[in-house]
Design goal:
By secondary structure, this protein is an all-beta fold. It is built from no helices and 21 strands. It has a six-stranded parallel β-sheet, with no helix packed on it. A six-stranded mixed β-sheet has the order 14-16-18-19-21-20, with no helix packed on it. A four-stranded antiparallel β-sheet has the order 2-1-3-4, with no helix packed on it.
């Protein structure tokens, strides 16, 4: 979904009157009203929206030019739009456990949000394509996008997010490509990415992270290396269990900080240990995190990964 860029939005959280928001397509000069029942589905071909509330038309050329942008959701069945200025509340679009909201088909998270509440979009499985979280967001709450298995593209987490809650993206098995966790995240919750089976490539935990929750990456199919820095002091039980394509892990923490069954039923055959990794035995046929038949070697050229 293309960017929706609107200049001079109201700085209040109250719902605007239908006449408050007008946008003009910079490519065709077509104007259209942004009313409570309208969603900007047709971004202009030149990638720019011009808008006004009161006063002259102004161009919103980049996100930095936009003082406040709400979060918009579009119900494709009812053809209605909801929006909210500011943080996204808990359970905003969720219908509750055991229910799916397949009517919600479009989502544009605005830069007025600094947090995404717990279960805000839980089981909104009508959402498709990429999920882009703006760099205003610092907290992704528990279950915020859990069971949103309709996403079929990339997940973009900005370098502003510090906490990824429990089950934040659990069962989002349609995401593809590499998962990049930014060097701002300090905590990855339990089940945060469990069953996100579409991610590929390396899984590199940044050196800002201190804890990885239980089952955080269980049943993920990353296709190459797992790298965990020495900033991580706690790796939860079953954290990387059933990662059946990962081939090697690069670790630099004492073996006592690795939870039970952390690597259970994974395909990890080689573990390379850095200078701060203690309690390991070099050689073949070692067991780490309840995964047997592992060969443990020194991580040469630490901290670089071959």
């Amino acid at each position: 979904m293309a960017d929706k860029r609107i200049k001079d939005l109201a700085a209040t959280a109250t719902s605007p009157a239908n006449d408050d928001f007008i946008a003009i397509d910079g490519a065709t000069n077509n104007t259209r009203k942004i009313a409570a029942d309208t969603f900007l589905q047709d971004a202009p071909s030149d990638g720019t929206l011009y808008g006004r509330q009161d006063g002259a038309w102004e161009e919103a050329a980049s996100p930095d030019d936009i003082p406040i942008v709400p979060t918009f959701v579009y119900d494709g069945t009812a053809e209605t739009t909801q929006f909210i200025v500011g943080n996204i509340p808990n359970d905003w679009q969720s219908l509750g456990f055991g229910y799916s909201n397949s009517d919600l088909t479009q989502l544009s998270i605005g830069n007025s949000a600094t947090s995404i509440g717990s279960y805000a979009f839980y089981s909104c499985n009508g959402l498709t394509g990429n999920l882009v979280i703006p760099n205003s967001v610092t907290i992704i709450g528990d279950g915020a996008f859990g069971n949103c298995n309709g996403f079929t593209g990339n997940l973009t987490i900005p370098n502003s997010v510090t906490i990824i809650g429990n089950y934040a993206f659990g069962n989002c098995n349609g995401f593809t490509g590499n998962l990049t966790i930014p060097n701002s995240v300090t905590s990855i919750g339990s089940y945060a990415f469990s069953n996100c089976s579409g991610f590929t490539g390396d899984l590199i935990i940044p050196n800002s992270v201190t804890s990885i929750g239980a089952y955080a990456f269980s049943n993920c199919f990353f296709t190459s290396n797992l790298v965990i820095p020495n900033s991580v002091t706690s790796i939860g039980n079953y954290a990387f269990s059933n990662c059946s394509i990962l081939t090697a892990a690069y670790l630099n923490q004492p073996i006592g900080q690795i939870g039970s069954f952390a690597f259970y039923a994974s395909s990890i055959a080689n573990v390379y240990i850095g200078p701060d990794a203690t309690g390991y035995t070099l050689g073949s046929e070692q067991t780490i995190g309840n995964k047997s038949s592992i060969t443990v070697s020194v991580w040469t050229n630490y901290p670089n990964v071959p």
